[in-house]
Specification:
Layout (H helix, E strand, L loop, with lengths): L1 E3 L2 E4 L2 E5 L2 E4 L2 E5 L1 E5 L14 E6 L4 E4 L15 E10 L2 E2 L6 E7 L8 E9 L15 E9 L11 E6 L3 E4 L2 E4 L3 E11 L9 E18 L14 E6 L18 H26 L19 E7 L16 E5 L11 H24 L14 H15 L1 H4 L8 H11 L2 H4 L15 H13 E2 L2 E2 L1 H4 L1 H12 L11 H16 L7 H14 L32 E4 L4 E3 L16 E8 L8 E6 L8 E9 L8 E2 L3 H4 L2 E4 L2 E6 L9 E8 L13 E5 L5
Parallel strand pairs: 1-5, 9-18, 19-20, 20-21, 24-26
Antiparallel strand pairs: 2-3, 3-6, 4-5, 7-11, 8-9, 9-10, 11-14, 12-13, 12-17, 15-16, 17-18, 18-19, 22-23, 25-33, 26-32, 27-31, 27-33, 28-29, 28-32, 30-31
Helix pairs in contact: 1-2, 2-3, 2-9, 3-7, 9-10
Length: 692
């Protein structure tokens, strides 16, 4: 990387910055510092601003993005490059050059009287264990130089401050471990003979440099994998002044600095190693040799994890999905949904690790490792399956009785009821829904295609259909995701091939999987439609022994033997199913007067509409008003519907009010023509006339 000195003059200030500017085939690195002069009054003497240079003795640099890519103005560039120091690696002090800071002052124009130049370096973050109301930042280095008038600096000679950080320092009369953090630098030049006089020059720079700790962790070898394909080591980057905090709104949940190292060594790191082994050995996921780390400083078999804060991304801007460099927030708002910080961090690790598996597949098929495709269109695949990975990796935790905002159920319930009856994802285009919410469909495939059966969970079998879908997607034979945004068009074809290749699913193609998925969603509204053990009872829908999925808002129709048409005036706004693969649910409450009579339910769509629908009817029995209805097992009658022109018809020859007194209707739009038909109009005609 080339370096350039770059000066920008602004009113009352001299700006000297080291900035990353990206041009085709060129990366320019420019030194960046903001120098501010201040004075107490207009008559006070003010020195011309010197140039200030900050660097590590090892000359290592790191990108820093204070706004995570949200702002970018000429004088406040989004990405700056700052010195990068490492205090400890694997619990031991690094070589001195890696933890030594140099600050140079150039072009000093001092008065002909003694001055004192004071340099102070503070942690950027505060230590929460200090007394309330205190500044909280730790002073890690302060040095004062007295400069007499007879000292002469040649024009090119800098005044240099140099400091080697050790493992401890004196702070407020105590010996404390040296903190690791981003650091703030302050500089003051004052008259030496009168400390009360206004300063001649002041300078302050937040996030002036980074000093971190690192741990290099061996990852387990995975039997059966090509040698060298999965990464062999994981490097952790972290700072002990970052707020390792279970609830970011409760300072009492913040981990003391002295407990962070033991937490990493005895809790987090073993759990990360176990998660890696689970994914590649127990789940039998592929990891192709085309994958490699693409940090320039890393060997090709290393994956990295930065433990960062929610507002400032550690080790640069938040990484692209599938990146070999992972960032996980140690004070995310989602941490509070877990019993421990370890559980939350491991959940996110499963998710980010799965993105690397996606990247491995993409690279294997000749892609560039971009798992989301053009304009991030294909995130239904990349993010939905990564959310699924957390639920498979932590089944006891993700399905525990008090899930709160845990990863899988946050997103699954967002699909079911995230925006209420109007805005929920059931009837949004897959191009518009939160791609993380798509995890509920992938979870259904995982469970039904061998992941849960006869009371046992088999992740290796259940994940096969997921991996096959990613193989088909990234192979590019059906669609080039880097050139196309036609996800709705190609989804059925991709999933048809994946389901057939997996060979473990109880449905033949995507359309059938969608219909059964819709029926399983409705079964969540019943008292006995959920699986209480993996795959049990037979014909159950989703595994949910603790009743965690949210209830749906389902319109109800009263049927008393008079013919009734359920049209757009009765349907929730917007009427119809405007999006491909959308789902409508309706409940029909039967009157005792219809007992023994025939019943027909007909779905009618406009003759010129390309929209195609599937109709399913589920028999239910109300027990009492305080409980969900019972699902009446009657598979033969559920399958008793047939298309007739533009009409789908479901018929019951003789209603049995004693056996069931409610019907659940599931309407699924199964075509991929939402761009042509954006209304998806249909009507339901319910009557008691016999159908020949």
């Amino acid at each position: 990387m080339n370096r350039y000195s770059f000066l920008i003059r602004t009113e009352g200030a001299l700006v000297l910055r080291r900035v990353n500017i990206y041009l085709p085939g060129i990366c320019l690195a420019l030194v960046v510092l903001l120098l501010i002069t201040t004075s107490a009054d207009s008559s006070a003497q003010v020195l011309p601003a010197p140039q200030i240079f900050i660097a590590g003795l090892a000359d290592h640099w790191i990108d820093f993005d204070p706004d995570n890519g949200q702002k970018n103005t000429p004088l406040q560039p989004s990405i700056v490059t700052i010195p990068h120091l490492v205090l400890k690696r694997d619990g031991q002090l690094t070589a001195p050059r890696e933890r030594t800071l140099i600050v140079e002052l150039r072009n000093l124009d001092l008065p002909r009287s003694p001055v004192e130049i004071t340099l102070a370096v503070f942690t950027q973050h505060s230590d929460h264990s200090l007394e309330p109301g205190s500044r909280g930042q730790i002073l890690v280095w302060q040095e004062t130089r007295r400069i007499s008038p007879d000292e002469i600096f040649s024009p090119g000679e800098p005044l240099t401050f140099q400091h080697e950080f050790t493992d401890a320092l004196q702070w407020k009369g105590e010996l404390v471990p040296t903190p690791t953090d981003y650091f703030q630098l302050e500089l003051r030049i004052t008259p030496a003979d009168n400390s009360t006089h206004a300063p001649l020059f002041t300078f302050s720079q937040e996030y002036a440099f980074l000093m971190e700790n690192q741990r290099l962790v061996a990852l387990p070898e995975i039997p059966g994998h090509t040698q060298g394909a999965p990464p062999g080591e994981l490097i952790l980057y972290y700072c002990d002044m970052f707020p390792f905090q279970l609830d970011r709104d409760d300072p009492g949940t913040r981990m003391p600095r002295e407990k962070i190292e033991p937490f990493l060594q005895t809790q987090l790191i073993p759990s990360l190693q176990a998660a890696f082994r689970d994914a590649l050995e127990a789940w039998e996921l592929p990891w192709y040799p085309e994958w490699s780390s693409y940090r320039l400083e890393d060997p090709p078999n290393r994956i990295s994890l930065a433990l960062t804060t929610r507002d400032i991304w550690f080790h640069g801007q938040s990484p692209d999905r599938g990146s070999a460099k992972m960032s996980i927030s140690v004070n995310s708002k989602d941490n509070r949904a877990y019993h421990s910080l370890k559980d939350s961090l491991v959940s996110i690790f499963y998710h980010e690790l799965f993105h690397n598996i996606q990247r491995s597949i993409s690279l294997h098929f000749g892609g560039a490792g971009d798992v989301d495709g053009l304009d991030n269109t294909w995130r239904f695949f990349s993010e939905g399956t990564a959310v699924l990975a957390s639920s498979v990796g932590q089944p006891g935790l993700q399905f525990s009785p008090d899930p709160g905002l845990r990863a899988y159920f946050t997103n699954a319930n967002g699909y079911l009821a995230g925006g209420g009856p109007v805005e929920r994802d059931l009837n949004k285009s897959y191009q518009e829904i939160d791609p993380y919410h798509g995890a509920i469909y992938w979870r259904y495939l995982y469970e039904q295609c061998g992941g849960m059966h006869a009371g046992l969970e088999n992740p290796a079998q259940g994940m096969q259909v997921i991996i096959q879908a990613l193989h088909v997607l990234y192979a590019g034979e059906i669609v080039d995701i880097h050139a196309s945004t036609a996800m709705i068009d190609h989804l059925p074809e991709i999933m048809d091939e994946a389901i057939q290749e997996a060979g473990t699913c109880p449905f033949a193609d995507y359309r059938e999987s969608l219909n059964q998925f819709a029926a399983a969603l409705y079964q969540l509204q019943t008292a006995n439609g959920r699986c209480l053990a993996p795959g049990l009872p037979e014909e159950c829908g989703f595994y949910d022994p603790r009743d965690i999925y949210l209830d749906l808002h389902i319109p109800e129709i009263q049927f008393t033997s008079q013919a009734f048409t359920y049209d757009k005036s009765d349907q929730p706004f917007p009427a119809g199913i405007k999006s491909s693969y959308g789902i409508d649910f309706i409940q029909v409450k039967l009157s005792p007067a219809v007992d023994g009579k025939p019943l027909s339910i007909e779905l009618i769509s406009p003759e010129d509409s390309p929209a195609q629908f599937n109709l399913q009817v589920i028999k239910l029995k109300d027990v009492d008003a305080n409980h969900r209805p019972l699902l009446v097992e009657d598979r033969e009658s559920q399958a008793n519907f047939s298309p007739g022109g533009d009409v789908l018809r479901y018929s019951i020859p003789d209603l049995d009010f004693e056996a069931y007194n409610r019907l659940g209707i599931v309407i699924t739009r199964v075509d991929n023509q939402e761009s042509v038909d954006k209304q998806g109009e249909y009507e339901l005609l319910i009557h008691s006339n016999r159908v020949q």
